[in-house]
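Q: What does the assembled structure look like for these inputs?
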Amino acid sequence: MKIRTWLSLSSIALLLSLSSIVKAEWGVNMTEGVTEISQSIYDLHMLIFWICVGIGVVVFGVMFYVMFKHRKSKGAVAAQFDESVTLEWLWTVIPTIILIAMAVPATKTLVEMYDASDAQVDIKITGYQWKWQYDYLGEDVSFFSNLSTSRDAVYNKEEKGENYLLEVDKEVVIPTGQKVRFLITSNDVIHAWWVPEFAVKKDAIPGYVNESWVNVPVGQEGVYRGQCAELCGVDHGFMPIVVRAVSQSDYATWLDEQRAEKEAAALAALGDYSFDELMTTGAEVYAGRCAACHGQNGEGMGSMFPPMVGSDIVLNDVDKHIDILINGVAGSAMQSFAEQLTDVEIAAVITYERNAWGNDTGDIVTPRDIIDARQ
Amino acid sequence: MSSKPNVAKSAIKHLFVALAMFGFGFALVPLYDVFCEITGLNGKVTGTVEKVDYTVDTSRTVTVQLLASKNAEMPWRFMALQEQIDLHPGEWKQIGFWASNTTASDMVSQAVPSITPARAAEYVQKTECFCFQQQPLAAGESKQMNMVFTISPELPEDIQTVSMVYTLFDSTEFADPETVAKLN
Amino acid sequence: MTTTTAAHDDHGHHGPAKGIMRWILTTNHKDIGTMYLWFSFIMLLTGGVMALIIRAELFQPGMQLIEPEFFNQMTTMHGLIMVFGAIMPAFVGLANWMVPMMVGAPDMALPRMNNLSFWILPFAFGMLLLTLFSEAGAPNFGWTFYAPLSTTYAPSSVTYFIFGVHLMGISSIMGAINIVATILNMRAPGMTYMKMPLFVWTWFITAYLLIAVMPVLAGVVTMMLMDIHFGTSFFNAAGGGDPVLFQHLFWFFGHPEVYIMILPAFGIVSHIIPTFSRKPLFGYSSMVYATASIAFLSFIVWAHHMFTVGLPLVTELFFMYATMVIAIPTGVKVFNWVSTMFQGSLTFETPMLFAIAFVILFTIGGFSGLMLAIAPADFQYHDTYFVVAHFHYVLVPGALFAIIAGVYFWLPKWCGNYYDEFLGKLHFWLSFIGVNITFFPMHFIGLAGMPRRIPDYALQFADFNAVASVGAFIFGFSQLLFLYIVIKTIRSGKQATPEVWEGADGLEWTLPSPAPYHSFSEPPQVK
Amino acid sequence: MQRQNIGLGLWKFLQSVIAALVGVQSQNKRQQDFAGDNLLRIIGISLVAAVVLILVILMMVNMALPDPS
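A:
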């Protein structure tokens, strides 16, 4: 008997001590977040948590008391009562009261969360298989945001950075002190856009638009990271979200920069490029966006992703090659990159694919070819 | 002793309950659409509505955002000619969307509307919308598709912005005969 | 569970056939129960290996062992095999063994259908497991198989998954009809509804849940089949369908399903605790009414699995309140167990240890369930490891501990020998510690923000994931000890008395141990 | 022992159905519930009570909602 009592005592102590760790910011508890909504959710979470701990202590306390006091080996003789309606009514009425006490603040918070009216900024978020697209309504700013952690880091060939798997090539910038409304939808399967510090999580469903909102208070400028929270296929764990909250003035300058960048890219497409410039840019674009499926050296992967090396289209049919990049291949995993890459990048990656790994066709594809093909 | 006849009877009875529940599973599909209609879930707004001359409520303006979105299977280019327009509740407006079939084969598309906030869905009235039927486009062709709509004045006060997203799907395999006829 | 000699009251009936044909052609509820239990144990180990692969990959950040594609297949198959292959058949096996003996019936009402509903299962799971070796790979869309990931974007093996689910559903419906027919028609005279043991009551209500929702699941997968192959568009928006319709249909089946997996466990624990407290069950009729109330309420709460899908505010509030109402009858059950123990005369053999661990750890799972019911808070919990911790607490120390407790409790009656008490306790403590080390840290990494079903994670989740993985291996291998204990008991345990346990009462304990091949040919007299 | 049919009034059944919803019931009340032919009546009343429960929750929801215009 002795060992058992000691063992059960220690395991319960372990459980209770673990729950006291919850207090310490040891990455064990929900984030309080930076917005009013996330704070009230955190308060609800802690309220229901402590209620459960309270009930747990009472119920388990009685159980352990009984396990020690009423043991047969201590001569306990079993009483034969098996019913007491008053006691039973008691332990239904009390939980009902507790639940009603919980329902009221929960309803208030939920109603606030559903009110996305009079927002100053509207961003349409579209989930793709394994990346996010952001359109700033009325600002003519639109871009894709991809995971920027390298494949080598994932496969332990490289050091993992501090924001491993939570870093992207283009961050979403939003102003603080303003209500930012998100219109969330999806291009293919169901995803879910989730940033813990904002307590914003909404499913992105094809054919649906879901709205949610955040109002980062002034003074809380900073970077907030989140991930896709609905199974969406192979790289479900590799499509993070990085939101940078900046002051309203920085936000305005950022918007201007994005539009300027867009014009520069359009202008750049009219310039002409040397073979080497296209090859270097092409190598970068290929490593970042195409290697995941077509292989580091263009060897392809199984029957799903065709190889680049010695491929008939790559070597002889440049128009088909450009068409695939711009329109994608319907019914396959090959997406259209028309909106994801600039004309220069598309021209560069095609030139690279046509001249790398022994494919050396020797000619180059110019951004202007891409512009003509886009018409 | 085990009474054989009763056993068979209750087994058959419960088998029918199981079959009924199988049917109930399928009956939930139309039930779901009815339920969406009532609560305006996902902006499943009623079909064509005859033109009602509301008394235009000029004291209020509602911002209507019109967004074009595509499904992965849909290679067409599809965009709204006007992303945002302001209108007084009760005022009828016509909006154009532009679609062009950049592929080398004839295709049929289906636009699926979705309105948010969901509470606003029942106040959006449409007399004509390209999303009511399938839209065919021959290879390389492009065209403007129109929609005539208004927001009824009974729209709740606290709603100032209504977003209507049209997601274009490739429904060539679901094309109904007369749409295909229009193609060739 | 080979029964050796025919018992004395076995006047002239033929004993079991010899050799393999005994098991293939058997219509005896004891043999079929045994087959269900062995099948479910094999599935537990298969699903367990998959869990160990998942936990081994998640031991460290970075991809060390397997590819993300295979990881998704492992999570999907782990879920399917544990839910449909380990937990449900184990309960059906316990029901096959015990329900006829508890109500004083000679056998199940439809013995041949009983055989058929077992023998469908190995083929259903054979087909499901063979997809692992197909070129397209096993299903990778999660055991909840949401559309369009499971329809338009699914690997071609999805059709085998659909037929597998069809077969499992048919097997469960036939099993449920069999149990209902047995309970309705073949109770011994005097065994009125309100004298039926609680295990029989919980299975009676679970059978009705099965009959009501398994057909809906069969309907959902049939709609998927028609979407994938026959050009309909139930869930494909391109043809007028709706992916959210799938989630409503699936969870309308899904929530009663999770109660199907826990109500029989309530029944088992409600037998064990009174026996080892030497005290009648506290509030027997409350327990029966609470089970019925839970069964009914489980039909109107399904959308609490979909709080972030974009339901209208009215719907979201309705399902939050309805989910809260379920907490009350569940609470009643836990309080009744504790009151049964109160002022009892307790001894702690292995079944009692597992039953007490069930009450404590299931209640922790119940509490995290209550936290998840708070809709606004669910926006932070949904699809994170907090949910994984919740449902593993109610399923592993919940359903699985109750099944193991049931096996330890009735094994002497099945095979006539006592199990080795020390080994039993060793198995308990290894499982108890393993379960908590595995699943308690998951509460923390879920709250800290780690989403579900991801093969690799950011660095801040690393240390608790390592702890969970270690716990998983402790818990996993301690089930092999359980296999050794069961085999050792069947072969050479100490001879068991008919009552087996001092505080046990019920028709099943009036039979000799091991229970004769044909029991209660003449219905017993129920006082 | 022969239990004469106590001819429970509808109200008695309703009480026991509500008690059942919460999962609390005393031994003797239960005997009355399960006396012979009452089963059909109980199922009938519990179905009605089920619909009433759903409506009650819906009513609470509308009460909790900010009054839409």
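The two ends of chain C are 30 Å apart (CA to CA).
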